Automatic annotation (TrEMBL):
GO CC term (a single one): chloroplast thylakoid membrane
InterPro entries in the record: Chloroa_b-bind
UniProt KW keywords: Chloroplast, Membrane, Plastid, Thylakoid, Transmembrane, Transmembrane helix
Cellular compartment(s): Plastid, Chloroplast thylakoid membrane
Main location, first listed in the record: plastid
Transmembrane listed as a keyword: yes
Keyword set includes Transit peptide: no
Membrane-spanning ranges: 33-50
Protein name listed in UniProt: Chlorophyll a-b binding protein 4 chloroplastic
Length: 80
């Protein structure tokens, strides 16, 4: 329902000349700085890292309370 509101709101705002955006069905035609395969691989790797950390927390609670890069940042217990 929120997607429909976004589509209709941008259509109305474009028709009364407040916004100048593309039609929602033309959004996939945009050219990006890289191919869609490269972007997919980058997103896959980033999500993989996040989900592995989440899985480690489920497997061993309190395991990810410390930042992996900046070791001085530690969360209090029961905060994750």
């Amino acid at each position: 329902m929120l997607g429909v509101v976004g589509i209709l709101l941008t259509k109305v705002l474009t028709s009364i000349a407040i916004l100048n955006v593309h039609k929602w069905y033309d959004a996939g035609k945009s050219e990006y700085f890289s191919s869609s395969l490269i972007l997919f691989v980058i997103v896959f790797i980033l999500f993989h890292c996040v989900e592995i950390r989440r899985w480690q927390e489920i497997k061993n609670p309190g395991n990810v309370n410390q930042d992996p890069i900046f070791k001085s940042y530690i969360l209090p217990p029961d905060e994750v």
